[in-house]
Amino acid sequence: MHLRQLTLASIALVAVVSVAPSAAAAGAATSADGGRGCGRPEIPPVYTSIEHPAVTETEPAVTEPAWRWERSVPTTEREYAVPEGAETVWLVDGVPVPEGYTATGATRAGVPVVESTSAASATAPEGEGWTVVPDSQVELVITPERVVEVVPAWVEDFIAVPGQAATKACPDREGGTVAGAGVGAPATGADRAAPVRAAAPAVPATPSPNPSAGSARTLPATGTPVPPWLVALGAACLVAGSLLVRGGRARMVP
After folding, report:
1. Which of 137, 177, 183, 223 has the fewest CB atoms within 10 Å distance of its CB?
2. pTM above the 0.70 mark?
3. Over the stretch 84-109, which tens digit does the pLDDT of each residue have?
């Protein structure tokens, strides 16, 4: 029972050790080409852009209060009479004197005259006696409302789909390389045959003194180097298997 378990474990170990280098090599090739495989052409990146509008702010208008102004101006009346002195008139300064009347020299205070401004202003006109007209306040616009550009419009470019570099050419069965799609033309049979014929040595074939030496160097049809300890482990497994078979036959004999 122990011998059978040892044999099965040895066979499993040989299988794992044999498969591990191939799996590691496949994983390395996949990581090297990004999972695309060999012989793939370069894929350029795809660009796109976004237009950003300008950023603006609205500055409010600048105003100040203003009023209409008025004042009461005193007047002076002067007396005018006809030469006979029977008739007189009182006239405010500035009023035309009727024909035939002359000034007597007498004066008196006349009815005050009210002056007012037609336009509003923040300050009173020049002179004395000006007062604000009731309910005449307005807002004078010093600077009108305006829109100010804080950040100008701009265009942002970025990569929508990243590009990928071309992968390495695929190896052919003769040890050379076969160009992939988009990389170059595939190799023809004549192209592959010429290097093989040139590489063949013109010497007579001689048998190997150690038939197992060739199998210890490479695995068949793969070209993968095999260490000597792996060959020894396989031989040990064969011996253990043969012992297991003999033991089973011995138990079957009465």
Report:
1. 223
2. no
3. 767 889 999 889 998 888 888 999 99
